[in-house]
Amino acid sequence: MFEFEKLKSSYTLTIQIGLSANVGYHEANRGNELLHKFCENLIEDSNCFDQEKRAMKHELELLKEALSKEIEHHYEKDQCV
Prior knowledge:
With 81 residues, the chain is mainly α. 86% of the residues lie in helices and 0% in strands.
């Protein structure tokens, strides 16, 4: 499970680095989709039990949604200035 925490942390950090580097809105969203799918594939290919995989994928989906909201907020903020 520790490795999963590192995976989520790396996923989040990558999106945040992209936002701080001022990648475009569409690129940030595509990056979120791509990273989510990549992480899902890593989970699916792991040696974990199916129930653990489902739980991790669900948590990963929640993280993706939270990051999508962060991306939306980041670009809404930029448009208000």
